[in-house]
Amino acid sequence: MKNFLKIFLLLPIITGFVLVKKPCPEKVYNFNFSSDQILQVGEELTYVVSYSFIKLGEIKILVKSKKTVNGKNFYNTIAYMDSYSGIPFVNLHMIYESTLDPDFYSVFFRGIVKKEEYTTFTEYYFNYNKSKVRIKKGKTNPYQLWTDSTAEVNKKYQDGLSILYYARYLSGSGKSENVPCFVNEKKVYTSINSYKEVTGVSIDAVNYDVACVRLDGEMNFISVFGLTGYFEGWFSDDQASIPIVAKLKVIIGNVKVELKSWKRPGWTPPKFEKD
Description:
By secondary structure, the protein is mainly beta.
């Protein structure tokens, strides 16, 4: 049963920890995002995480607010990750917060882990004009600052939550990218392959197959809590690009993350129409 704890600790993966072992060649990114067409303030997505037939917990992801600076939009987003009560050896409660710049890269990240004894936090403050990121780590109740340092950054980076929104925009494009990420105070890359083919995906939340486009990637090493190898996800084939289902490989099996409910005015999962 302790393995279930390791699996549930993979919940942050759906919000972004997808790494590649070897340094990847740098690429020029020329995306022209149209954020107002896809992100909506108040959007709330809830997912169920399961291992085989066992439901371990839920992830709730929200777009909290939007701030316009010099005509450019910055979005504040948050993800709550909680295990269900009554599951032996599993008691996980985490919060990720991320502020996205107009290109959907991170300008701020906060990760919170609630433990029985105290709550820990990790914060990244990106200042791309000065090529710096400030790193703060510590705990609360009582407050104690463990780390307050800076590191150089020579490009824009994704964090553990912002990369989910970047993937939403990449979905359906048919492009493959090695995206710079700043994770666990390390500069790494996320490998993302997007496909244009539309397919039907079944979920419990609706009584029809959802029209989706697929996205996948590969990890050639063992990451945190046993994540390794191949991963894939399906996003709604519409302007919203909502993550519908994700499958993640761990050492002892596969974890499934499935859309359970949503709050987004005017949106329902698009129906897959067979030819």
